[in-house]
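__Record contents__

***
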Amino acid sequence: MKRIVILGAGTAGTMAANQLRKRLERDVQITVVDEDPVHYYQPGFLFIPFGTYSPDKVTKPKARFIPKGVNFVKATITELVPEQQVVRLGDGTELPYDYLIIATGTHPTRSETPGLDSSEYGKTIHDFYSYDGAVALHDAIEKFDGGTLVVNLIELPIKCPVAPLEFAFLADAYFEERGIRDNVTIKYVTPMSSAFTKPVAAKRLGDMFERRGIDIEPDFYVERVDADRRTVVSFDEREVEYDLLVTVPVNKGAAFLGKTGIVDELNHVKVDSKNFQSPDFPSIFAIGDAAALPSSKAGSVAHFAMETFVPNFIEYINGSEMTHEFDGHANCFIETGHDKAMLIDFNYFTEPLPGKYPVPKLGPMSLLEETRRNHWGKLGFKWLYWHMLLPGRRMPVKAEMSMAGKIPVTEPDTSKDNI
């Protein structure tokens, strides 16, 4: 009997378990390991601080989404030994595998930045990339009556790379609706040279920042946070003062992966970007945010990638050549405030362009354009996530990015960064 072990029951791990169970013979044993019994709808964290979602709207039991015929082990993963093809758990249990799928995600790690994990965390320093952080930030935003709000991105890659932009836009709209926008200075502090890494989208987003009176501090690489002085300090000794700091900490892969020799400096698993296979141990694959891919760490990437990963994986374990290639397809809604949003669609090779999606000329979504329809599309995705995406049902969009409906822009892409 072939033994498949999936580490992590988040978005990617749950989708993989569902799709593989449907398509593999019953003589294949699938085991999913995760220590947290709660599944979080992470895109919803962005909305909790502004009261759009209550905390209970973004959580469900993970066990509900694990299909029948799959073993679900609730345990801490302490060690992976690729040479022995074994996973060790906190209770001393050893799980041998024939094939391993790593889907342990990426995680905000405050300890990577001096001063960030101080006693001021939860008071004047917040994040919305965790459930507890988003809930605490709701209270802080509600009580904030004026001063300087700094939205700070420390380092790439991060999951949902557009979320810091969205937070800045939503904060602008929130304070305007409260009638105190003139009392609030919003600063967006980023290590990137602009609001976005790709030229066409960067220009449009930069114009939006300017119209909203949001200041951008580019090329700012955070060296430390001085919580006592309420100051963010860069490596070149520039300083940005704040009254309320909303930061996106360094994102790192699971700690136990650091000892395996299969990860990069941020504990993300090095894989072939087209088929998710480890170059060092062919029996190991990494999917979702756990993988070191030159694409966004976003739920849409995990969804589109699954359409390539599952048939490839099945071919591989059956002894055949993998015949599918992932193109890095991603699309993301960008909330812009006042019940409007933008939509971007791109892949490894093509930057976000204007146009219509998913049906050429008809849409109904508009690319790189603020519309109410895009906003409702983002809110509506929560239902699709719980009822379609996690259970492994086919979504009504193609996995491969298409140029149909997109309007080419002549401005050259000189950026080598990925979002």
The two ends are 41 Å apart (CA to CA). Confidence is low (pLDDT under 50) at residues 412-419. Helices lie at 11-23, 131-143, 163-177, 199-212, 299-317, 372-389.
